[in-house]
Backbone:
């Protein structure tokens, strides 16, 4: 199958979209781009391929009768088992890396005790891992750093106390290791991991059984056939904050403004104004009827008004990023937040909490603050025209959306507001479309060259 | 004999001390610092307080006055709370009697405080409402570089070509560090660049509050960072009209807690004399 890839290297997350020749999206992948752009690109494409394989499995199983109504359940379990395989692989890497750090002379006096403590920490992490990926499990994030890191901090506090070791020491070992681990993408062999995940569900030759053992023949054949489809990557286009560092030639790179404009146009062809709130950029973009950018504005180098603002607040409150919106939306009396700086807003949040103000009211105030900043960026880009499309990670946040709808109506009247559930992939989608067009014209050039020769 | 405790609840760490104050004679009995990162500040405050009491061989009933400062106003077992400006001033005088200014550098705020010989605050000024160049900023960068707090100073002092980092958002710092590292800038040069940028701002604060001579004592969580203190000396020397000695004491991190404990003892005596303690607490 011929595929085209778009990569959006954001400052916080890297997104990949895999498109087929008919402009259909067949896979989406996301990872955090904390360390190395090259790695982030590889991981996001790998994730998009995993997603594409899931989609192909879905299609193949539907054709053989859909498991008698248990299809969704099966797919959920398959993905969970796959994720667990991958998580344990990375956890092993993290443990080894942490142990390696202990060889440094600064740890000489505590090395043996620290080794024992680390073994205990990782034993506990491995033990609780299956529950993290089981049915109905709620994770604060899907990224290894967040999942493993969050639990490492929690578990090592208890282990350090029991062992009479300093908590800071275990944290430092982790801090020194995690970047290295993140710079190593999970070992490839996606198909192998899928096959092992599959045997966990349908049983294997050693006589182990699984929840879908009764469907073994049908499932094995369909999933096997889906996994055998080769995804042949024809053309790749990168965009986003880190695009200049991508190891691609110039024709494989497009500006993120162009990609966001085109992506928003593909999702909602009537789009004239785009607001994209990403990790560290907020952009207001005006596009024409073909999705071509006419004007745009961006925030300055400050996290206020960006997605990271909410990420920081979530960390402060020890909540998951996607728990913020649902809590803020419960507020009936938003608090006015005075601090602009994200870090100071975090301190203001703590102050107000200690004064006994309600969490939902403070959070609602913080959401309002971020949207107010976004409104001023849009107005500098030329205001809001019908239709208005809100993209980027924050578009998933219902409290932010509520504030935005209110302010748009107050300032610009009745305007159609589009919010796509896959909005975080807008830039990558635009990039994938650029890749498809480039592949098309390359194929055309090849064909013409063939005729001429 | 009056036993008083001082607790400085900061953004980065909880500091607790216990003092015995007897007719103006002060004896320091115990100290403890617990870093907060990802933990509950109130639980840590309790833990730090219990620990200093244990170390001093005292029970809670032995303590006449528990004074909090920083963000410690909500600590349930406190007797009274003191504003951090006054506690750092008093703490600086305790640690370095010649101090005529305290430069309190914490996780969020940098504060310059001009003081008289008894620790009375004469004038003060704080850094602006943006966390770029704060201790939190430095801590974030160090974490992304995988560097422990106590390594920062010596690495910074090993810099040969400090990177200029005049203004970077503390929250977005992560991406900046990644970019710096990918541009081949070494950890010492990144750290020294940040130290110089922080020090430049703090030096301006000293000028703004009219400090021109005497000793400036660095207090707060970052006082132990000798790379920062070295950068301060460099940056203060660049400002005309200021001729001061910059010092940091090994116990500078406790300045707020010390000040709180000593002001607590002072207030306790005053109230005891007036027989009003019961009424006041």
Residues:
């Amino acid at each position: 199958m011929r595929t085209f890839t778009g990569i959006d290297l954001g400052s916080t997350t890297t997104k990949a979209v895999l498109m087929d020749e008919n402009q259909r999206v067949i896979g989406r992948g996301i990872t955090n781009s904390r360390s190395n752009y090259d790695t982030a690109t590889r991981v996001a494409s790998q994730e998009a391929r995993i997603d594409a394989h899931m989609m192909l499995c879905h299609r193949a199983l539907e054709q053989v009768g859909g498991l008698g109504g248990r299809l969704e359940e099966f797919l959920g379990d398959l993905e969970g088992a796959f994720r667990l395989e991958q998580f344990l692989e990375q956890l092993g890497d993290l443990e080894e890396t942490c142990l390696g750090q202990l060889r440094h002379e600064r740890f000489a006096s505590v090395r043996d005790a620290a080794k024992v403590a680390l073994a205990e920490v990782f034993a506990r992490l491995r033990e609780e891992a299956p529950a993290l990926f089981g049915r109905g499990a709620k994770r604060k994030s899907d990224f290894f750093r967040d999942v493993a890191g969050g639990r490492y901090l929690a578990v090592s506090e208890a282990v350090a106390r029991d062992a009479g070791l300093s908590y800071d020491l275990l944290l430092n070992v982790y801090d020194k290791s995690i970047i290295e681990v993140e710079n190593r993408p999970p070992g490839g062999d996606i198909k192998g991991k899928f096959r092992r995940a599959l045997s966990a569900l349908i049983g294997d030759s050693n006589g182990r059984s699984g929840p879908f053992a009764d469907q073994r023949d049908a499932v094995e054949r369909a999933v096997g056939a889906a996994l055998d489809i080769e995804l042949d990557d024809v053309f790749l286009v990168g965009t986003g904050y880190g695009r200049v560092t991508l190891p691609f030639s110039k024709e494989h790179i497009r500006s993120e403004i162009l990609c966001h404009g085109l992506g928003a146009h593909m999702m909602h062809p009537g789009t004239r104004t785009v607001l994209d709130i990403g990790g560290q950029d907020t952009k207001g973009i005006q596009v024409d009827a073909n999705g071509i950018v006419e004007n745009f504005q961006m925030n300055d180098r400050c996290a206020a008004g960006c997605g990271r603002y909410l990420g920081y607040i979530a960390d402060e409150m020890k909540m998951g990023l996607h728990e913020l919106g649902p809590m803020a939306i419960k507020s009936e009396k938003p608090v006015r937040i005075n601090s602009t700086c994200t870090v100071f807003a975090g301190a203001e949040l703590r102050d107000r909490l200690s004064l006994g103000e309600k969490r939902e009211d403070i959070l609602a105030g913080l959401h309002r603050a971020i949207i107010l900043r976004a409104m001023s960026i849009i107005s500098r880009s030329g205001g809001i025209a019908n239709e208005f499309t809100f993209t980027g990670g924050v578009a998933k946040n219902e409290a932010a959306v509520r504030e935005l709808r209110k302010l748009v109506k107050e300032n610009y009247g009745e305007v159609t507001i589009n919010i796509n559930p896959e909005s975080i992939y807008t830039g990558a989608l635009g990039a994938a479309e650029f890749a498809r067009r480039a592949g098309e014209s390359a194929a055309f050039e090849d064909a013409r060259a063939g005729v001429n020769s | 004999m009056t036993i008083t405790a001082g607790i400085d609840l900061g953004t980065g760490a909880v500091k607790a001390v216990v003092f015995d104050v007897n007719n103006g004679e002060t004896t320091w009995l115990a100290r403890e610092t617990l870093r907060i990162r990802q933990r509950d500040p109130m639980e840590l405050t309790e833990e730090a307080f219990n620990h200093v009491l244990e170390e001093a061989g005292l029970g809670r009933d032995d303590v006449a006055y528990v004074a909090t400062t920083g963000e410690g106003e909500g600590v349930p077992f406190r007797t009274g709370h003191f504003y951090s400006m006054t506690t750092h001033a008093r703490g600086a005088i305790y640690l370095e009697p010649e101090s005529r200014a305290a430069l309190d550098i914490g996780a969020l705020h940098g504060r310059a405080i001009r003081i008289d010989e008894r620790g009375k605050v004469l004038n003060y000024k704080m850094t602006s409402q943006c966390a770029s160049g704060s201790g939190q900023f430095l801590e974030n960068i160090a974490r992304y570089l995988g560097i422990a707090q106590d390594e920062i100073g010596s690495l910074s002092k090993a810099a040969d070509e400090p990177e200029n980092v005049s203004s970077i958002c503390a929250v977005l710092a992560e991406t900046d560090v990644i970019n710096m590292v990918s541009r081949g800038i070494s950890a010492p040069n990144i750290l020294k660049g940040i130290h110089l940028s922080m020090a430049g701002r703090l030096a301006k604060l000293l000028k703004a509050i009219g400090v021109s001579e005497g000793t400036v004592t660095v207090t707060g969580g970052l006082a132990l960072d000798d790379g920062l203190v070295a950068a301060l000396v460099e940056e203060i020397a660049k400002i005309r009209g200021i001729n001061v000695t910059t010092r940091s004491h090994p116990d500078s991190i406790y300045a707020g807690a010390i000040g709180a404990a000593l002001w607590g003892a002072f207030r306790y005596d005053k109230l005891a004399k007036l027989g009003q303690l019961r009424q006041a607490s």
In short: Chain B has a mean pLDDT of 90. Strands of chain B lie at 2-9, 13-22, 25-35, 65-70, 80-81, 99-105, 110-115, 121-126, 213-219, 243-248. The two ends of chain B are 20 Å apart (CA to CA). Chain B touches chain A through 31 residues (CB under 8 Å).
